[in-house]
């Protein structure tokens, strides 16, 4: 295969992944960041059951799922939410959608990065500026996040 054909193949493959698999790109949201968000949420326990309205390794809630999937072709039912939240790959996609929808500089340091996404993931998109250390669970979440991201 020539270099030109290989390049064309790679371009078409990327186009296919973005258009047909509906993957999205969010600046500074890479696999390491997503992994740290998972660690911060549940120590990335892929077997975490639905408990008190929170499900799976990212501890997703139905309102979080609804906000993330708004305007997307995804099943809005509680059963679909739970199935997705309990599946690591699907849950990671929901986190990406949510962060893409609410991405902003929550800690006002001039950069929108994984720390902002951690604040969005924990506090919700509408209150991401709130300090993670304001509650015991927030401190635990922040500690796991910062230990992971070092």
Descriptive report:
The chain is mainly α and 150 residues long. Helix content is 57%, strand content 3%. It contains seven helices and two strands. The chain has a two-stranded antiparallel sheet with strand order 1-2. Helix 2 (31-42) runs parallel beside helix 6, helix 2 (31-42) runs antiparallel to helix 7 (136-149) and helix 3 packs across helix 5 (88-102). The longest helix has 18 residues, at 3-20. It is globular. The model is unreliable at 5-22 (pLDDT under 50).
Describe the protein's topology.
Elements: H1 3-20, H2 31-42, E1 54-55, E2 60-61, H3 62-69, H4 78-85, H5 88-102, H6 114-123, H7 136-149
Antiparallel strand pairs: 1-2
Helix pairs in contact: 2-6, 2-7, 3-5
Low-confidence residue ranges: 5-22
Average pLDDT, rounded to a whole number, is 87
How many extended strands?
2
Order of the strands making up the biggest sheet:
1-2
What is the chain-wise order of helices and strands? HHEEHHHHH
- Which class do the helix and strand fractions yield? mainly alpha
Largest sheet: 2 strands, antiparallel
Number of helices: 7
Q: What is the radius of gyration computed over CA atoms, rounded to a whole number of angstroms?
A: 17 Å
C-alpha termini separation: 42 Å
**What fraction, in percent, of the residue positions are helical?**
55-70%
Question: What fraction strand?
Answer: under 5%
The shape is globular
């Amino acid at each position: 295969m020539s270099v030109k054909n290989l390049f064309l193949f790679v371009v078409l493959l990327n186009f296919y992944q973005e258009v047909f698999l509906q993957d999205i790109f969010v600046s500074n949201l890479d696999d390491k960041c997503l992994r740290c968000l998972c660690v911060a949420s549940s120590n990335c326990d892929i077997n975490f059951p639905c408990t008190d309205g929170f499900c799976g390794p990212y501890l997703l809630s139905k309102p979080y799922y609804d906000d993330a999937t708004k305007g997307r072709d995804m099943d809005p039912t509680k059963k679909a939410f739970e199935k997705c939240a309990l599946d690591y790959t699907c849950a990671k996609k929901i986190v990406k959608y949510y962060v893409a929808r609410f991405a902003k500089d929550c800690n006002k340091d001039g950069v929108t990065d994984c720390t902002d996404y951690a604040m969005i993931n924990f506090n919700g998109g509408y209150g991401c500026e709130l300090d993670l250390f304001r509650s015991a669970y927030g401190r635990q979440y922040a500690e796991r996040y910062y230990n992971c991201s070092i």
